[in-house]
Amino acid sequence: MVHFGNDWDDILKDEFSKEYYVKLREFLKSEYFGKPYPVYPDMNDIFNALRRTAYKDVKVVIIGQDPYHGPGQAHGLCFSVQKGVDIPPSLKNIYKELQDDIGFIPPSHGCLYNWADNGILLLNSVLTVRGGAAGSHRGKGWEIFTDRVISELNRREQPIVFMLWGNYAKEKGRLVTAPHHHILTAAHPSPLSAYNGFFGCRHFSKAMNLLGEKIDFSLSD
């Protein structure tokens, strides 16, 4: 049984007995224990996004695709890498937009724990991946699970800002139907697309204006 240690435990308690998740769990067992290749993130880090950002605390949702597939990178938060790992290009571009938008001071690392601890849910659509094989765990059931997470957030009475970057994330926007929530869309921050609408989107200042409160996007070294 998965344990989050916050209100997600009660909200998602029925999900883990559903047929799709039972099949997903068996698939993950075979991947983590029965194959010659690595699987990321570490099993203990798969649900870090939900463990670090309680349902009641969510202010902003940023949706990624699947985890980084290089050694030591993924640790359960989209776009984030563990300290000591080179900052990936997409995250460098997120830092650049933050700096241009709100005067953010980029840190020397790419670990976004402080965001997660301050109400920014960093949720990948797919929560695991084979090493060196992007997208290798898509279509195995994770999308159903993360759809449920977003649907539950849609039911919340307090407003949330959803930042959907790139077509993959935008597709999840269909689940956000409550009129008091806010959807911000832009190109993906990847170097391949950042100049096509991510740079200059000013989503971070817009989120604060929409919610009427300051959001802590700071990251100390």
The amount of helix comes to 25-40%
Strand content: 5-15%
Mean pLDDT, all residues: 96
Cα separation of the termini: 35 Å
Number of strands: 6
Number of helices: 8
Structural class: alpha/beta
Q: How would you describe the shape? A: globular
Gyration radius, in Å: 17 Å
**H-E order:** HHEHEHHEEHEHEH
Report strand order across the widest sheet: 3-2-5-6
Runs in which pLDDT lies below 50 for 5 or more consecutive residues are none
Can you summarize the main beta sheet?
4 strands, parallel
Secondary-structure map:
Blueprint: H1 8-11, H2 19-34, E1 39-40, H3 48-52, E2 60-64, H4 89-102, H5 113-116, E3 120-124, E4 129-130, H6 142-154, E5 161-165, H7 167-171, E6 182-186, H8 203-211
Parallel strand pairs: 2-3, 2-5, 5-6
Antiparallel strand pairs: 1-4
Give a description of the structure:
There is one protein chain. The chain is of the alpha/beta class. 32% of the residues lie in helices and 11% in strands. The protein has eight helices and six strands. Strands 3-2-5-6 form a four-stranded parallel β-sheet. Strand 5, helix 7 and strand 6 form a beta-alpha-beta unit. The longest helix is centred in the N-terminal third of the chain and has 16 residues, at 19-34. The N and C termini lie far apart (35 Å).
